[in-house]
Protein backbone atom coordinates (compact mmCIF):
# COMPACT_ATOMS: atom_id res chain seq x y z
CA UNK A 1 0.00 0.00 0.00
CA UNK A 2 1.35 3.42 -0.94
CA UNK A 3 2.01 5.82 1.94
CA UNK A 4 2.00 8.93 -0.25
CA UNK A 5 0.30 10.40 -3.28
CA UNK A 6 2.77 9.59 -6.05
CA UNK A 7 0.98 11.98 -8.39
CA UNK A 8 1.79 15.05 -6.27
CA UNK A 9 4.60 17.30 -7.50
CA UNK A 10 7.05 17.82 -4.60
CA UNK A 11 10.18 19.96 -4.91
CA UNK A 12 13.21 19.99 -2.64
CA UNK A 13 12.02 23.36 -1.35
CA UNK A 14 8.59 21.84 -0.59
CA UNK A 15 10.47 19.28 1.52
CA UNK A 16 12.06 22.09 3.52
CA UNK A 17 15.43 22.61 1.82
CA UNK A 18 15.89 26.06 0.25
CA UNK A 19 18.77 25.64 -2.20
CA UNK A 20 18.39 29.20 -3.48
CA UNK A 21 18.84 30.62 0.01
CA UNK A 22 21.80 28.31 0.45
CA UNK A 23 23.34 29.81 -2.67
CA UNK A 24 22.77 33.32 -1.34
CA UNK A 25 24.44 32.29 1.91
CA UNK A 26 27.53 31.10 0.02
CA UNK A 27 27.66 34.37 -1.90
CA UNK A 28 27.38 36.30 1.37
CA UNK A 29 30.44 34.63 2.89
CA UNK A 30 32.82 34.54 -0.08
CA UNK A 31 34.62 37.76 0.82
CA UNK A 32 34.93 36.70 4.46
CA UNK A 33 36.54 33.43 3.40
CA UNK A 34 38.90 35.16 0.95
CA UNK A 35 40.08 37.49 3.73
CA UNK A 36 41.57 34.48 5.57
CA UNK A 37 43.68 33.29 2.62
CA UNK A 38 47.34 32.43 3.02
CA UNK A 39 49.76 32.29 0.06
CA UNK A 40 49.45 28.49 0.07
CA UNK A 41 45.73 28.54 -0.73
CA UNK A 42 44.95 27.36 -4.26
CA UNK A 43 41.70 28.59 -5.79
CA UNK A 44 38.70 29.53 -3.67
CA UNK A 45 35.57 28.05 -2.14
CA UNK A 46 32.97 26.37 -4.31
CA UNK A 47 34.85 23.30 -5.44
CA UNK A 48 34.57 19.79 -4.08
CA UNK A 49 37.61 20.23 -1.86
CA UNK A 50 39.85 22.92 -0.38
CA UNK A 51 43.30 23.12 -1.98
CA UNK A 52 46.42 24.05 -0.02
CA UNK A 53 50.03 23.86 -1.25
CA UNK A 54 52.44 21.89 0.92
CA UNK A 55 55.56 23.15 -0.87
CA UNK A 56 56.77 25.12 2.16
CA UNK A 57 56.96 21.93 4.21
CA UNK A 58 59.99 20.87 2.16
CA UNK A 59 62.07 23.38 4.15
CA UNK A 60 61.43 21.47 7.38
CA UNK A 61 63.66 18.65 8.59
CA UNK A 62 60.75 16.33 9.40
CA UNK A 63 57.32 18.00 9.00
CA UNK A 64 54.59 16.49 11.15
CA UNK A 65 50.97 17.24 10.27
CA UNK A 66 48.70 17.63 13.28
CA UNK A 67 44.92 17.71 13.01
CA UNK A 68 42.20 18.66 15.46
CA UNK A 69 38.43 18.72 15.47
CA UNK A 70 35.90 20.08 17.95
CA UNK A 71 32.63 21.94 18.40
CA UNK A 72 31.22 24.73 20.54
CA UNK A 73 28.89 22.57 22.61
CA UNK A 74 25.88 23.81 24.52
CA UNK A 75 27.12 27.39 24.57
CA UNK A 76 25.13 27.52 21.32
CA UNK A 77 21.90 27.17 23.31
CA UNK A 78 22.60 30.52 24.97
CA UNK A 79 23.61 32.08 21.64
CA UNK A 80 20.26 31.01 20.18
CA UNK A 81 18.27 32.15 23.21
CA UNK A 82 19.98 35.56 23.06
CA UNK A 83 19.95 35.71 19.24
CA UNK A 84 23.68 36.47 19.18
CA UNK A 85 25.65 34.53 16.62
CA UNK A 86 28.64 36.74 15.73
CA UNK A 87 31.23 35.21 18.09
CA UNK A 88 30.47 31.48 18.27
CA UNK A 89 32.48 30.95 15.08
CA UNK A 90 35.58 32.24 16.87
CA UNK A 91 34.83 29.76 19.66
CA UNK A 92 34.81 27.00 17.08
CA UNK A 93 38.17 27.96 15.61
CA UNK A 94 39.74 28.49 19.03
CA UNK A 95 38.78 25.06 20.31
CA UNK A 96 40.58 23.42 17.39
CA UNK A 97 43.66 25.61 16.88
CA UNK A 98 44.48 25.95 20.59
CA UNK A 99 44.47 22.16 20.84
CA UNK A 100 47.06 21.62 18.10
CA UNK A 101 49.08 24.56 19.45
CA UNK A 102 49.78 22.35 22.48
CA UNK A 103 52.17 20.37 20.26
CA UNK A 104 53.83 23.54 19.00
CA UNK A 105 52.01 23.34 15.66
CA UNK A 106 51.13 26.23 13.38
CA UNK A 107 47.53 25.94 12.11
CA UNK A 108 47.52 25.98 8.31
CA UNK A 109 43.89 25.70 7.32
CA UNK A 110 40.42 25.21 8.75
CA UNK A 111 37.07 23.79 7.62
CA UNK A 112 33.69 24.22 9.27
CA UNK A 113 30.42 22.30 9.27
CA UNK A 114 27.15 24.05 10.07
CA UNK A 115 24.03 21.95 10.59
CA UNK A 116 20.92 24.13 10.70
CA UNK A 117 17.17 23.69 10.63
CA UNK A 118 16.60 26.35 7.98
CA UNK A 119 19.22 28.41 6.17
CA UNK A 120 18.89 32.17 6.16
CA UNK A 121 21.73 33.93 4.36
CA UNK A 122 22.05 36.78 6.88
CA UNK A 123 22.05 34.42 9.85
CA UNK A 124 24.64 32.18 8.19
CA UNK A 125 26.83 35.17 7.37
CA UNK A 126 26.90 36.13 11.07
CA UNK A 127 28.07 32.65 12.05
CA UNK A 128 30.70 32.35 9.32
CA UNK A 129 32.01 35.86 10.01
CA UNK A 130 32.95 34.61 13.47
CA UNK A 131 34.73 31.63 11.91
CA UNK A 132 36.62 33.91 9.51
CA UNK A 133 37.55 36.29 12.34
CA UNK A 134 38.88 33.34 14.33
CA UNK A 135 40.91 32.09 11.37
CA UNK A 136 42.49 35.52 10.96
CA UNK A 137 43.39 35.59 14.65
CA UNK A 138 44.97 32.14 14.28
CA UNK A 139 46.68 32.92 10.97
CA UNK A 140 45.07 29.95 9.23
CA UNK A 141 43.04 29.87 6.02
CA UNK A 142 39.36 28.97 5.87
CA UNK A 143 39.52 26.71 2.81
CA UNK A 144 36.02 25.26 2.82
CA UNK A 145 33.07 23.96 4.77
CA UNK A 146 29.53 22.71 4.59
CA UNK A 147 26.13 24.23 5.33
CA UNK A 148 23.63 21.41 5.83
CA UNK A 149 19.92 22.15 6.14
CA UNK A 150 18.04 19.63 8.33
CA UNK A 151 14.29 20.31 8.12
CA UNK A 152 12.23 18.00 10.28
CA UNK A 153 15.29 17.09 12.35
CA UNK A 154 16.17 20.49 13.83
CA UNK A 155 14.03 23.52 14.64
CA UNK A 156 14.28 26.18 11.91
CA UNK A 157 16.37 28.44 14.19
CA UNK A 158 18.46 25.62 15.70
CA UNK A 159 22.03 24.95 14.57
CA UNK A 160 25.19 23.14 15.57
CA UNK A 161 28.82 23.74 14.63
CA UNK A 162 31.83 21.50 14.10
CA UNK A 163 35.30 22.43 12.92
CA UNK A 164 38.48 20.79 11.70
CA UNK A 165 42.00 22.14 11.40
CA UNK A 166 45.34 20.90 10.12
CA UNK A 167 48.67 22.30 11.28
CA UNK A 168 52.34 21.48 11.01
CA UNK A 169 55.37 21.34 13.26
CA UNK A 170 58.93 20.28 12.54
CA UNK A 171 59.54 17.13 14.59
CA UNK A 172 62.74 18.45 16.29
CA UNK A 173 60.69 21.42 17.57
CA UNK A 174 57.60 19.48 18.60
CA UNK A 175 56.61 19.86 22.25
CA UNK A 176 56.54 16.65 24.24
CA UNK A 177 55.19 16.13 27.79
CA UNK A 178 57.99 13.58 28.27
CA UNK A 179 60.35 16.58 28.59
CA UNK A 180 58.62 17.81 31.77
CA UNK A 181 60.69 17.32 34.93
CA UNK A 182 60.15 17.77 38.69
CA UNK A 183 60.93 21.36 39.58
CA UNK A 184 59.51 22.78 36.34
CA UNK A 185 57.31 25.85 36.65
CA UNK A 186 53.76 26.08 35.27
CA UNK A 187 52.87 29.46 33.78
CA UNK A 188 49.38 30.50 32.78
CA UNK A 189 47.95 32.83 30.16
CA UNK A 190 44.60 34.41 31.05
CA UNK A 191 41.28 33.32 29.60
CA UNK A 192 38.56 35.70 28.48
CA UNK A 193 35.98 33.97 30.64
CA UNK A 194 34.32 30.57 30.53
CA UNK A 195 35.45 30.02 26.92
CA UNK A 196 33.45 27.07 25.48
CA UNK A 197 33.30 24.45 28.23
CA UNK A 198 31.06 23.86 31.22
CA UNK A 199 27.93 25.35 29.66
CA UNK A 200 25.71 22.42 30.59
CA UNK A 201 26.41 23.36 34.22
CA UNK A 202 26.01 27.07 33.41
CA UNK A 203 22.61 26.47 31.83
CA UNK A 204 21.45 24.36 34.78
CA UNK A 205 22.51 27.08 37.23
CA UNK A 206 20.83 29.85 35.24
CA UNK A 207 17.59 27.96 34.75
CA UNK A 208 17.55 28.07 30.96
CA UNK A 209 17.01 24.34 30.40
CA UNK A 210 14.40 23.82 27.70
CA UNK A 211 14.17 27.51 26.81
CA UNK A 212 14.43 28.30 23.12
CA UNK A 213 13.26 31.41 21.26
CA UNK A 214 9.47 31.58 21.23
CA UNK A 215 8.85 29.27 24.19
CA UNK A 216 7.14 30.53 27.37
CA UNK A 217 9.63 32.28 29.59
CA UNK A 218 12.30 32.68 26.90
CA UNK A 219 11.80 36.44 26.43
CA UNK A 220 11.85 37.10 30.18
CA UNK A 221 15.01 35.03 30.65
CA UNK A 222 16.70 36.83 27.77
CA UNK A 223 15.88 40.19 29.35
CA UNK A 224 17.26 38.95 32.68
CA UNK A 225 20.53 37.84 31.09
CA UNK A 226 20.92 41.10 29.16
CA UNK A 227 20.37 43.29 32.24
CA UNK A 228 23.38 44.81 34.09
CA UNK A 229 24.65 42.44 36.76
CA UNK A 230 26.07 43.91 39.95
CA UNK A 231 28.33 40.89 40.59
CA UNK A 232 29.93 41.45 37.17
CA UNK A 233 30.60 45.13 37.78
CA UNK A 234 27.62 46.23 35.73
CA UNK A 235 28.31 44.01 32.72
CA UNK A 236 25.53 41.69 31.60
CA UNK A 237 25.59 37.93 31.94
CA UNK A 238 24.83 37.75 28.22
CA UNK A 239 28.02 39.61 27.33
CA UNK A 240 30.15 37.67 29.83
CA UNK A 241 28.80 34.25 28.89
CA UNK A 242 29.17 34.78 25.14
CA UNK A 243 32.65 36.33 25.29
CA UNK A 244 34.54 34.36 22.63
CA UNK A 245 37.23 31.83 23.45
CA UNK A 246 40.66 33.38 23.26
CA UNK A 247 43.03 32.24 20.49
CA UNK A 248 46.63 31.95 21.72
CA UNK A 249 48.30 30.93 18.47
CA UNK A 250 50.16 34.04 17.34
CA UNK A 251 51.88 35.05 20.60
CA UNK A 252 52.81 31.49 21.51
CA UNK A 253 54.22 30.70 18.06
CA UNK A 254 56.27 33.90 18.24
CA UNK A 255 57.52 32.83 21.67
CA UNK A 256 58.54 29.42 20.37
CA UNK A 257 60.10 30.87 17.22
CA UNK A 258 62.24 33.08 19.47
CA UNK A 259 63.77 29.98 21.01
CA UNK A 260 61.88 29.89 24.30
CA UNK A 261 62.60 26.46 25.88
CA UNK A 262 58.99 25.48 26.59
CA UNK A 263 58.70 21.85 27.64
CA UNK A 264 54.95 21.38 27.17
CA UNK A 265 51.67 23.24 26.73
CA UNK A 266 48.17 22.44 27.99
CA UNK A 267 45.00 23.95 26.54
CA UNK A 268 42.50 24.19 29.41
CA UNK A 269 39.19 23.02 27.94
CA UNK A 270 36.48 20.55 29.02
CA UNK A 271 37.32 19.11 32.43
CA UNK A 272 39.00 22.33 33.54
CA UNK A 273 42.51 22.51 34.94
CA UNK A 274 42.28 19.09 36.58
CA UNK A 275 41.63 17.09 33.43
CA UNK A 276 43.79 19.04 30.97
CA UNK A 277 46.98 20.04 32.72
CA UNK A 278 47.71 16.35 33.33
CA UNK A 279 47.84 15.85 29.54
CA UNK A 280 51.02 17.95 29.49
CA UNK A 281 52.83 15.95 32.19
CA UNK A 282 55.39 13.17 31.98
CA UNK A 283 54.25 9.87 33.48
CA UNK A 284 56.42 10.35 36.59
CA UNK A 285 55.53 14.00 37.26
CA UNK A 286 52.61 15.63 39.11
CA UNK A 287 51.46 19.24 38.83
CA UNK A 288 50.78 21.06 42.09
CA UNK A 289 48.45 23.97 41.36
CA UNK A 290 48.67 26.89 43.79
CA UNK A 291 45.63 29.18 43.83
CA UNK A 292 46.71 31.01 46.99
CA UNK A 293 47.04 34.79 47.18
CA UNK A 294 50.83 34.71 46.83
CA UNK A 295 50.52 33.25 43.32
CA UNK A 296 51.36 36.12 40.97
CA UNK A 297 48.49 37.87 39.23
CA UNK A 298 46.04 34.98 38.84
CA UNK A 299 42.59 36.55 38.50
CA UNK A 300 39.46 34.44 38.18
CA UNK A 301 36.99 36.11 35.78
CA UNK A 302 33.93 37.42 37.65
CA UNK A 303 31.54 35.37 35.52
CA UNK A 304 33.26 32.14 36.61
CA UNK A 305 33.05 33.12 40.27
CA UNK A 306 29.40 34.06 39.75
CA UNK A 307 28.54 30.63 38.36
CA UNK A 308 30.71 28.85 40.94
CA UNK A 309 28.91 30.52 43.83
CA UNK A 310 25.49 29.86 42.31
CA UNK A 311 26.45 26.18 41.91
CA UNK A 312 27.88 26.03 45.47
CA UNK A 313 31.18 24.64 44.19
CA UNK A 314 34.43 24.91 46.11
CA UNK A 315 37.28 26.47 44.10
CA UNK A 316 38.94 23.09 43.64
CA UNK A 317 35.66 21.52 42.51
CA UNK A 318 35.28 24.34 39.99
CA UNK A 319 38.80 23.59 38.70
CA UNK A 320 37.41 20.26 37.48
CA UNK A 321 34.88 22.03 35.24
CA UNK A 322 36.09 25.54 34.39
CA UNK A 323 39.38 27.07 33.28
CA UNK A 324 39.24 29.40 36.33
CA UNK A 325 40.92 32.16 34.33
CA UNK A 326 43.71 29.97 32.96
CA UNK A 327 43.24 29.48 29.22
CA UNK A 328 46.64 28.01 28.43
CA UNK A 329 49.48 26.58 30.54
CA UNK A 330 53.15 26.59 29.54
CA UNK A 331 55.65 24.44 31.44
CA UNK A 332 59.27 25.60 31.60
CA UNK A 333 62.39 24.85 33.63
CA UNK A 334 62.75 27.06 36.72
CA UNK A 335 65.89 28.72 35.36
CA UNK A 336 63.93 29.74 32.24
CA UNK A 337 60.91 31.18 34.04
CA UNK A 338 62.05 34.81 34.23
CA UNK A 339 63.14 34.96 30.58
CA UNK A 340 59.91 33.30 29.41
CA UNK A 341 57.78 35.68 31.45
CA UNK A 342 59.70 38.64 30.06
CA UNK A 343 59.33 37.38 26.49
CA UNK A 344 55.60 36.88 26.92
CA UNK A 345 55.20 40.33 28.40
CA UNK A 346 57.10 41.76 25.43
CA UNK A 347 54.48 40.08 23.23
CA UNK A 348 51.70 41.84 25.17
CA UNK A 349 50.78 38.88 27.34
CA UNK A 350 50.14 38.82 31.09
CA UNK A 351 51.59 35.51 32.31
CA UNK A 352 51.27 34.31 35.89
CA UNK A 353 52.44 31.33 37.88
CA UNK A 354 49.93 28.50 38.19
CA UNK A 355 52.09 26.06 40.12
CA UNK A 356 55.06 23.72 39.89
CA UNK A 357 55.91 20.15 38.98
CA UNK A 358 56.95 17.49 41.47
CA UNK A 359 57.72 13.78 41.31
CA UNK A 360 54.53 11.78 40.98
CA UNK A 361 52.40 9.78 38.57
CA UNK A 362 50.98 12.25 36.03
CA UNK A 363 48.28 13.74 38.28
CA UNK A 364 47.09 17.28 39.03
CA UNK A 365 47.00 18.19 42.72
CA UNK A 366 46.17 21.39 44.59
CA UNK A 367 48.44 23.02 47.15
CA UNK A 368 45.66 23.56 49.68
CA UNK A 369 44.76 19.86 49.55
CA UNK A 370 48.31 18.53 49.88
3D architecture notes:
It is a single chain. With 370 residues, the chain is of the alpha+beta class. It has 2 domains: 149 residues, PurM-like, N-terminal domain (60s Ribosomal Protein L30, Chain: A, 2-Layer Sandwich), CATH 3.30.1330.10; 141 residues, PurM-like C-terminal domain (Phosphoribosyl-aminoimidazole Synthetase, Chain A, domain 2), CATH 3.90.650. Helix content is 30%, strand content 22%. It contains 11 helices and 12 strands. Strands 8-10-7-11-9-12 form a 6-stranded mixed beta sheet, with helices on one face. The model has no long low-confidence stretch (mean pLDDT 91).
Features:
alpha+beta; six-stranded mixed β-sheet; single chain; 12 strands; four-stranded mixed β-sheet; Phosphoribosyl-aminoimidazole Synthetase, Chain A, domain 2; about 375 residues
Secondary-structure element series: HEEEHHEHEEEHHHHEEHHEHEE
- Could you give me the name of the CATH homologous superfamily of the largest domain? PurM-like, N-terminal domain
Give the strand order of the largest sheet, numbering strands 1, 2, ... along the chain. Answer: 8-10-7-11-9-12
Question: How large, in whole angstroms, is the Cα Rg?
Answer: 22 Å
Could you say which structural class the secondary elements and strand pairing correspond to? Answer: alpha+beta
CATH class annotation of the largest domain: Alpha Beta
The CATH architecture of the largest domain can be given as 2-Layer Sandwich
Distance between the termini: 72 Å
The chain-level mean pLDDT equals 91
Question: What is the helix content?
Answer: 25-40%
Low-confidence stretches: none
Amino acid sequence: MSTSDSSKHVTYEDAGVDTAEGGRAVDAIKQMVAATNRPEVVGGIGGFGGLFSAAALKDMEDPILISGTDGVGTKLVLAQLLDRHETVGQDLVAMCVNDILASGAEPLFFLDYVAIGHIEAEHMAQIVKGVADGCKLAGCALVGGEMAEHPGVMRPDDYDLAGFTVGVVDRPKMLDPANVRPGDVILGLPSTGIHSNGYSLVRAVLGVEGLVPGTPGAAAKRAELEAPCEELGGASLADALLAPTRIYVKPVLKLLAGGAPVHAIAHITGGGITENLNRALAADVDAVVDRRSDAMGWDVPPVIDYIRHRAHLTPNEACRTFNMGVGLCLIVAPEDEAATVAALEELGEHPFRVGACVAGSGQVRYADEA
